[in-house]
Amino acid sequence: MINLFSLLYLLTVVVANLAFAHFMQGEDMKQLLIVDGVICFLMIGFDMAIRDKLHDAWEHRGLFWKMPALIFAGSVASYVINKDAAQVALASFTAFAAAGFIDFLVYHALRHNSHWLRVNGSNLLSAAVDSLVFPFIAFGLPMQWNFFSVEFITKVLGGIVWFVLLGLIWQQRKYFSASQR
């Protein structure tokens, strides 16, 4: 199951990077802002939910090297598939790495709290870091505060929605596998 989560995480990072790079080449910043919000809600929110699942699975089994390797692999794959995505791949790698580190710190600081608080509390702060770092590297200065706002809000909401949806799917799966015994 962990290999499936790793593959889903990696695939989502690559698709998000390539989609953003594709729309970034256009001239319409309003369209890019809308696409960015959709990517952040659907894909980055999903990645945050999967990241926490991988975090739990790898906690004492290589978390410190496996997560950075997965993040790096997603950025390299994005670049290899589309050389025009180099700036996005660099922004993505840096933002995911910084956000992943913050997520790790907060997730472990909240380890004695409920799973819901651990996941969403760590996602709240890591979404803020990711939303600051990505637009800064992707666009440079001056900071694109409209992108920060859209990214932060949609990542947090997407993370909560995916946490709930994936939780329901995992509960159903456990129910059906237990009832078939």
From TrEMBL:
InterPro entries: YhhQ. The chain crosses the membrane at residues 31-50, 62-81, 87-110, 122-141, 147-170. Keywords: Membrane, Transmembrane, Transmembrane helix. This is Queuosine precursor transporter. It comes from Ephemeroptericola cinctiostellae.
